[in-house]
Amino acid sequence: MAWQGIMNKYKKYLPVNENTPEVSLFEGNTPLIKSVNLSKELGIELYFKFEGLNPTGSFKDRGMFMAVAKAIEEGSKTIMCASTGNTSASAAAYGARYGLRTIVLIPDGYVAMGKLAQALQYGAEIVAIEGNFDDALNLVKEITATHPITLVNSLNPYRIEGQKTGAFEIVDDLGDAPDYLAIPVGNAGNITAYWKGFKEYHKAGKISKLPKMKGYQAKGASPIVEGKTFENPETIATAIRIGNPASWDKAINARDESNGSIKAVTDEEILYAYKKLSDKEGIFAEPASAASLAGVIQSVKNGDIKKGSKVVAILTGNGLKDPDTCLDIAEKPVSIPGTLESVLELIEKK
Ligand code: F0G
After folding, report:
1. 247 shares a domain with 295
2. How buried is 161 (Cβ within 10 angstroms: 0-12 exposed, 13-18 middle, 19+ buried)?
3. 160: nearest Cα among 89, 53, 246, 241
4. Is the CB of 161 under 6 A from ligand 1?
5. Are 93 and 187 members of one domain?
6. Spatial separation of the C-alpha atoms in residues 300 and 308, rounded to whole Å
7. Where would one find coiled-coil regions in this protein (predicted)?
């Protein structure tokens, strides 16, 4: 049968009742791609969960359908979020499809071009503020607490409920949990959601063991690693440019309960992994997503991830969202006369 969306597939694990409307852009069911080259290089069995193939190109859709369904069920007409880009694109798409007013607050100048284009295209009301994501989220929390507007950031528990299905899909594909789950950490909702999903599947007897959760923050925005908030977080991975994660405690809980870790990766490590992923596996993910592979490379090197183990790295967003980063680091194509002679001369030089 054709894919019917997450709500249909995992209904019994979700907060769905007879009053919950069916909300879907056919999110989920993303591929678990087995590595063909990096597995060998690293000496592990590596898989990529490519969340960039969701309808708006990121894992946010996995939680947004659920948050929007509950907002409609509760009679809400307006949804709002702060965003480094992906949440706003996702909220805007579902908001458009189900006739909700969608308001998004973004840090001016720090949202990748493709994400901004998406929010505009889906018709969201976009407010760019002078400030960072943390400032935007504080404003959204205050406004939604005092107005009849539904907050759809991952502080909304329904977002977590939807996103936990990523763990279900991995297990349904592999037949058990992996040894390690590598995941980028920004506002810390996704690591919280995956851990919840694995625990629920464990309780349901679907897996024999729980994975160790390996979270990775960008070094310039690594409050959980450092144990202190960052006033001015900075990283090339703008999606995770966050200095005071909303689900900080829950991320620590996932780390500790799973016997895992949350570590920092530098922008250099992120960019190396970003390019490597495309060069060696044919996968184009955005820089923040590459933080999970950067972390795997680092952790295998220092023995934190054991050789021979089964590792799933979550690739949270599509590389097409952020063409600027790619173009900045790429060698530009040369322009030559359109003659057989000059084309042959060029390709024979290689
Ligand atoms: N990867 C990408 C591509 C993201 O967009 C985000 C978060 C994360 C990783 C981190 O996930 O916040 O659950 O720890 N993006 C949010 C946004 C903040 O506004 O789109 P997290």
Report:
1. yes
2. buried
3. 246
4. no
5. no
6. 10
7. none
CA Rg, the chain, in Å? 20
Mean pLDDT, the chain, integer: 97
Our answer on whether the CB atom of 240 is closer than 6 Å to any ligand 1 atom is yes
Burial letters 150-160, b for 16+ CB under 10 A, else e: bbbbbbbebbb
The answer to whether residues 169 and 312 belong to one domain is: yes
What are the C-alpha distances in Å from 187 to residues 82, 93, 103, 133, 304?
Answer: 11, 21, 19, 9, 24
> Model ipTM?
0.99
Domain match, 135 and 28 both: no
Structural domain that includes position 92? 59-151
Whether 350 has a pLDDT exceeding 90, the answer reads: no
Taking the CA atoms of 284, 286, 287 and 289 in sequence, report the sign of the dihedral they define: negative
Task: Give the domain CATH number at 124.
Answer: 3.40.50.1100
Residues 292 and 310 in one domain: yes
Ligand 1 contacts CB of residue 288 (under 6 A): yes
Q: Count the domains in the chain.
A: 2
Q: 184-221, pLDDT tens digit by residue? A: 999 999 999 999 999 999 999 999 999 999 999 999 99
* CA-nearest residue, atom 6 of ligand 1: 239
Check if 85 has its Cβ closer than 6 Å to any atom of ligand 1: yes
- Ligand 1 centroid, distance to 84 Cα (angstroms): 7
In angstroms, what is the span from residue 45 Cα to ligand 1's centroid? 25
Same domain, 183 and 306: yes
Question: Within a domain: residue 350?
Answer: no
